Request: fold
Amino acid sequence: MKIGVAQIRPIKGDISDNILKHILLVSIASDYGVSAIFFSELSLSGYEPELASDLATDQSDKRFDVIQAICNKNSITVGVGIPTKTQSGIQISMVIFQPNKTRITYSKQQIHSDEFPYFECGEKQIILTIDNKKIAPAICYESLQTSHSDNAVILGAEIYIASVAKSQMGIEKGKIHYPAIAKKFAIPVLMSNCVGFCDNFESAGQSSVWTKQGSLAGQLDNKNEGILIFNTETEVVIKHTI
Reply:
């Protein structure tokens, strides 16, 4: 299968304009025949914890119908980041759009201590099946915890997706941790990061793909928006920047 990760520069708090950025990159991915593409942590709102309570929504938000429409038209699965409301608080979530199916929400199960004042933890790992491949999403901090990937593999994950918003320091940790996961479990690991300023740090981009051998197959730079497309059979990566 062809699976992708997207790297965008989110506009702070502007969900409507960020949707347009997502639509552009999903369209490009569709032209390459990609079956699924995943965006960075809180990609639709920007990683802005102090704004999360005002921006939080849910998977049925009518603004998302245009994303659903392109998924249906092009038979592509899309994972986007957005804060979501629960009865008790706000979660850091990935809303997953699949062609002609009900949307699914995955919420970050392990949050960083800095996020405690703003968010609560999600409760359950999900595993997506796309083109007969089982895919486990992970969101930022939890993707650097060995317990998360261990559990994902127990649940059958064959591909691991890390959706993050990381500074250069975080990326350096990821460059050690993610290939180690790939090699340990013999599964590809794909990381989607954003670029630009978010919260109180500069996000460092460098979205990447590691093969099941733990080798770096492809990486974007720290400035440009674009996508990485990974062919799971040939392990070839296509890079497209905008």
